[in-house]
Amino acid sequence: MDRLIIRGGIPLRGEVEAAGAKNAALPEMVASLLTGESIQLHRVPQLGDVKTTIGLLSHLGVSVERRDRETLFLRADRISRFEAPYQLVKTMRASVLVLGPLLARFGRARVSLPGGCAIGTRPINLHLAALEKMGATVSLDAGYVEAKAPRLRGARITFDGQTVTGTENLMMAATLADGVTVLENAACEPEVADLAALLIRMGARIEGVGTPTISIEGVDHLHGAEHEVIPDRVETGTFMVVAAITGGDVTINRCVPCHLEAITEKLQETGVIVEETDWSIRVCGDGRVQGINIRTHPYPGFATDMQAQFMALMAIAQGSSVITETVFENRFMHVNELLRMGADIKVIGTTAFVQGVPMLSGAPVMATDLRASASLVLAGLAAQGITTVSRVYHLDRGYESIEQKLLGLGANIERVTE
Ligand code: UD1
């Protein structure tokens, strides 16, 4: 298992390029199951979760070829299995995304209940209830969800709560259903919209993308398409915090600033300078930030995937901050590790009260989930002394070449493989 060794206290400066978005690339790779023709995806990031998805799709019979660093060709013309086994899905919750496409095109799917980040119970009841509304028979057996439907039929579905992968699963399922499906209270995340853009290129009829009401008119079949994955807004946001927390000056290129408005506003509230062009964001700090209050929300609110990184920043802010997590229960596992580095944080229920300290000190810490790991790296970059972050595989699930990118900005960081 790899560890990252970080010698902190260096203001990071320079330019970095955003990778393609993990949370768009994964559903878009899975969308290849909806057609026997080739799907060509550009700007696919090199990540643990992408590798897991390639493994899962290959297991089902999809041929997956990486033509160059960023381009994948996927062709689902010889699907031989309809089951996503536990061994493959346990590390990645997004694997539940194969359910909708397999069911829509082949009439059956058997998918192990997913694992993934340990950030709450994270059920898939909303996905299943919606598929049942479209006529699927769903049963649970020995840790597996089994769904069957000769042909899904269009339905009006009002999600009980907003769910990103739930919206994606149902949107994919509805593209090949008989009739019109209307998804109410659908997720508005840019990654959902990007998946819809790919599906439309494949011949799907979708309206209302980016709004809470998405309408999909089913077609008989979809065809091949070529598509470029949008930039990763969480990776971009994380590098924005890198600049703020180290008192540095970092420009993130090839990003989409309008996807990060809530993050930008909050960073400005802390006192750092944020400058934007249409495709880049520059963040300059002088090492002093003000404590602010944060409440996570679905898009366009403040992303839960940025909460842990902001908590690291608030740990060294002047004054106090209140951070409330409303999307996931139990998403404060980074708190205990930050405490080991000298942070002053108290958690009551889903709210963290952070009293800023002048300085964090390096310590051995353990990554517990993807975004929690990022917050520990950020804390390590700001801390005096040496921080060792173990269980880096969590980080590798969602950040492409993170230590290479940080090295490029002047960080003292080293990966040690055991
Ligand atoms: C996606 C993102 C993840 C992000 C999250 C919230 C991907 C691959 N992952 O995860 O990075 O943190 O959105 O922005 O895109 N819920 C239910 N029942 C369900 C489905 C969800 O109760 O059937 C609950 C969840 O427990 C959670 C909330 O709804 O409390 C939101 O979850 P959801 O949007 O589904 O997250 P994911 O799609 O898994």
UniProtKB/TrEMBL annotation:
<keyword id="KW-0133">Cell shape</keyword>
<comment type="similarity">
    <text>Belongs to the EPSP synthase family. MurA subfamily.</text>
</comment>
<dbReference type="GO" id="GO:0008360">
    <property type="term" value="P:regulation of cell shape"/>
</dbReference>
<feature type="binding site">
    <location>
        <begin position="22"/>
        <end position="23"/>
    </location>
    <ligand>
        <name>phosphoenolpyruvate</name>
    </ligand>
</feature>
<keyword id="KW-0961">Cell wall biogenesis/degradation</keyword>
<feature type="binding site">
    <location>
        <position position="327"/>
    </location>
    <ligand>
        <name>UDP-N-acetyl-alpha-D-glucosamine</name>
    </ligand>
</feature>
<feature type="active site" description="Proton donor">
    <location>
        <position position="117"/>
    </location>
</feature>
<dbReference type="GO" id="GO:0005737">
    <property type="term" value="C:cytoplasm"/>
</dbReference>
<keyword id="KW-0670">Pyruvate</keyword>
<comment type="pathway">
    <text>Cell wall biogenesis; peptidoglycan biosynthesis.</text>
</comment>
<feature type="domain" description="Enolpyruvate transferase">
    <location>
        <begin position="7"/>
        <end position="406"/>
    </location>
</feature>
<keyword id="KW-0131">Cell cycle</keyword>
<dbReference type="InterPro" id="IPR005750">
    <property type="entry name" value="UDP_GlcNAc_COvinyl_MurA"/>
</dbReference>
<keyword id="KW-0963">Cytoplasm</keyword>
<dbReference type="GO" id="GO:0008760">
    <property type="term" value="F:UDP-N-acetylglucosamine 1-carboxyvinyltransferase activity"/>
</dbReference>
<protein>
    <recommendedName>
        <fullName>UDP-N-acetylglucosamine 1-carboxyvinyltransferase</fullName>
        <ecNumber>2.5.1.7</ecNumber>
    </recommendedName>
</protein>
<dbReference type="GO" id="GO:0051301">
    <property type="term" value="P:cell division"/>
</dbReference>
<feature type="binding site">
    <location>
        <position position="305"/>
    </location>
    <ligand>
        <name>UDP-N-acetyl-alpha-D-glucosamine</name>
    </ligand>
</feature>
<keyword id="KW-0808">Transferase</keyword>
<dbReference type="GO" id="GO:0009252">
    <property type="term" value="P:peptidoglycan biosynthetic process"/>
</dbReference>
<dbReference type="Pfam" id="PF00275">
    <property type="entry name" value="EPSP_synthase"/>
</dbReference>
<dbReference type="InterPro" id="IPR001986">
    <property type="entry name" value="Enolpyruvate_Tfrase_dom"/>
</dbReference>
<dbReference type="GO" id="GO:0071555">
    <property type="term" value="P:cell wall organization"/>
</dbReference>
<feature type="binding site">
    <location>
        <position position="93"/>
    </location>
    <ligand>
        <name>UDP-N-acetyl-alpha-D-glucosamine</name>
    </ligand>
</feature>
<comment type="function">
    <text>Cell wall formation. Adds enolpyruvyl to UDP-N-acetylglucosamine.</text>
</comment>
<keyword id="KW-0132">Cell division</keyword>
<dbReference type="InterPro" id="IPR013792">
    <property type="entry name" value="RNA3'P_cycl/enolpyr_Trfase_a/b"/>
</dbReference>
<keyword id="KW-0573">Peptidoglycan synthesis</keyword>
<dbReference type="GO" id="GO:0019277">
    <property type="term" value="P:UDP-N-acetylgalactosamine biosynthetic process"/>
</dbReference>
<feature type="modified residue" description="2-(S-cysteinyl)pyruvic acid O-phosphothioketal">
    <location>
        <position position="117"/>
    </location>
</feature>
<dbReference type="InterPro" id="IPR036968">
    <property type="entry name" value="Enolpyruvate_Tfrase_sf"/>
</dbReference>
<dbReference type="InterPro" id="IPR050068">
    <property type="entry name" value="MurA_subfamily"/>
</dbReference>
